[in-house]
Every structure is written in C-alpha cells, then in structure tokens.
C-alpha cells in the first residue's frame, strides 16, 4: 500500500473517528491538559481573527481569486502555508499526502482566505445521521473503491454537510438534520471514469469559490461549529460577499498527529453580491 493511501486510511478510519471528542458543545474543545502549551497559540489566533473583523484590516477583493489561487482576507495576516516537496507545513502543522492537481494551498490555522477550487473528481458516499456512527458506512466502500482501482488517494478527506443547519442558526450544524457526504479525491480526473461503484458515486465536483478558515484541533462537528462563527463574522463585516452553498470541511491528518495540531479547514461557498445597474439618468 503506498504512503498516500496509508495516510488517507489513517485520516478517515481513526482521525475522523476523533469526532467522538467533538460531537457536541460540551466536548468540542480539548481539555487544558490535552491542549498543554497549545492553549496560548489558539488564544492568539482567535484574538487575531477578532481584530481583523473589527478593524477590517484587509479590503475584500472585488472578484473571486483565479482558479487554484488564494487571497488572504482576515485573521492572522502573517501565518503561512509552505510546500516542502509534497508536504505542506504551517508552524507545527503538516500535511504529508499530496493535494489534487490544481488545488489552492491549504489555509493555515488562524487565517481566513478566499480561494477558488478547480473541478475535482471525487469518490463519494452519502448518509444521514451521526457522522461518527456512519463513518464505517462511508469509509470502507471508499477505501475498497480506490484499492480495487489502484488509485493513490490525496489529502484532504472532504465532508459536505447539506441541510444540517440548526433551527434559527444557519452557522451551526445539527447532526439530526440533513445529510452528509464523505469524499476521497482523485489527484487527476483522468485516473478513472465517473459512474457508480456499489455505494460509491464517482463524479466531478464543480469549480467553487469558498471562504475558508484554517483551524487546529480534534476533528468533528464540534470543530466545524467553532469555525462557522468566524466565517459568519467575516461575511457580516463584508456584505459585498454572500454565502452561496452548504458547509464543507477538510480534514488533513490521521492518528499519527496529536489532536492539538490536527489541521483542518471549515469552508462556505460564497459569491460576490451583484451590484445594481447604474441609472444613466443619474449622470446627467
């Protein structure tokens, strides 16, 4: 089994199983003992986010980034993601498996970015209810699919959440509602055809522009629900952009990475608000 598949296997079979630590508000944050010195780092990142929202440190761009590109729009303005061979690094966080071709750089923890993703071929399994309980339902068909086709998988594992917004709060998820999709990504679309393979559906996911916040900590709905208010705050501060789709989450690490430094992203599809046509008579 190649290294990329081993990492993806770890991410889903155990890394996403850390959802047990974060399926509700009472367990969404690691204990002080588990966090250790990382508590100060997380507090500093949160403070940087709040300062950028209040001060509007960056003017939101007038248009979406080009496909495969990223624009920093808030949060920590100095933190970086750097590529070392095929390993992405940001501080103590790292991603060992390669991203699909054409994917923009991962958003570093503490930063908020606009980024445009290209069309990507995905192997998907969809389900309802608890993502923790349904993990095996989705994981094994996906793993068997790539194994049978000798496809080296990439990172991240993508999770899409449809219709899962909590009552009265579109920026919090409720696992008792809607459905979710877990996806493994082809590095290249030419690696295999679209179509059905048992419970797995292989299809191309459309190009999309997203607002993304990089986060650290155990994976799961609790982590997603921590990231969403950051995106909500940015959108409120920049009304020229609006939400245009359902919540997505990217998980980059497996169990070999301790919970405190697991790297993920919480994303919302967005679009530029259409500007009203100017009235020619107003210039006369």
Explained architecture:
The chain has 284 residues and is of the alpha+beta class. The chain has one domain: Regulatory factor, effector binding domain (Multidrug-efflux Transporter 1 Regulator Bmrr, Chain A, Alpha-Beta Barrel), CATH 3.20.80.10. The chain is built from 5 helices and 16 strands. The strands form 3 sheets. Strands 1, 5, 6, 7, 10, 11, 12, 13, 14, 15 and 16 form an 11-stranded antiparallel β-sheet that branches. A hairpin with a 2-residue loop joins strand 11 (195-197) and strand 12. The longest helix has 18 residues, at 38-55. It is globular, with a radius of gyration of 19 Å. The relative contact order is 0.21.
The low-confidence parts are 1-37
Multimeric state? single chain
CATH class: Alpha Beta
User: Structural class, from secondary structure content?
Assistant: alpha+beta
Any idea what the CATH architecture is?
Answer: Alpha-Beta Barrel
Determine the N-to-C terminus distance: 71 Å
Domains counted in the coordinates: how many? 1
- CATH fold name, please? Multidrug-efflux Transporter 1 Regulator Bmrr, Chain A
Number of strands: 16
Chain-wise SSE layout:
Layout: H1 3-15, H2 32-35, H3 38-55, E1 70-75, E2 82-84, E3 87-90, E4 93-95, E5 111-117, E6 120-128, H4 135-148, E7 157-162, E8 165-166, E9 169-173, E10 179-185, E11 195-197, E12 200-205, E13 208-216, H5 221-237, E14 241-243, E15 247-251, E16 263-272
């Amino acid at each position: 089994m190649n290294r990329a598949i081993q990492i993806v296997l770890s991410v889903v079979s155990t890394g996403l199983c850390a959802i047990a630590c974060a399926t509700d508000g009472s367990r969404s944050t690691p204990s002080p003992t588990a966090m250790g010195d990382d508590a100060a780092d997380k507090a500093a990142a949160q403070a940087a986010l709040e300062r950028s929202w209040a001060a509007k440190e960056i003017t939101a761009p007038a248009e979406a980034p080009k496909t495969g590109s990223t624009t920093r729009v808030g949060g920590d303005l100095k933190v970086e993601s750097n590529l070392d061979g095929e390993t992405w690094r940001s501080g103590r966080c790292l991603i060992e498996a390669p991203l699909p071709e054409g994917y923009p750089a991962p958003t570093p923890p503490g930063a908020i970015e606009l980024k445009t993703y290209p069309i990507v071929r995905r192997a998907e399994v969809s389900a309802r209810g608890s993502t923790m309980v349904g993990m095996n339902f989705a994981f094994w068909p996906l793993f068997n699919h790539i194994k049978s086709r000798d496809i080296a998988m990439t990172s991240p594992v993508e999770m899409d959440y449809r219709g899962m917004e909590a009552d009265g709060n579109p920026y919090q998820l409720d696992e008792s509602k809607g459905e979710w999709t877990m996806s493994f990504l082809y590095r290249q679309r030419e690696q295999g055809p679209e179509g059905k393979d048992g419970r797995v559906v292989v299809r191309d996911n459309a190009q999309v522009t997203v607002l993304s916040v990089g986060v650290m900590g155990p994976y799961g709905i609790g982590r997603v629900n921590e990231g969403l208010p950051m995106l909500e705050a940015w959108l409120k501060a920049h009304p020229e952009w609006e939400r245009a789709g359902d919540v997505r989450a990217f998980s980059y690490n497996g169990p070999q990475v301790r919970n405190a430094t697991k790297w993920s992203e919480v994303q919302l599809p967005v679009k530029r608000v259409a500007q009203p046509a100017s009235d020619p008579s107003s210039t006369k």
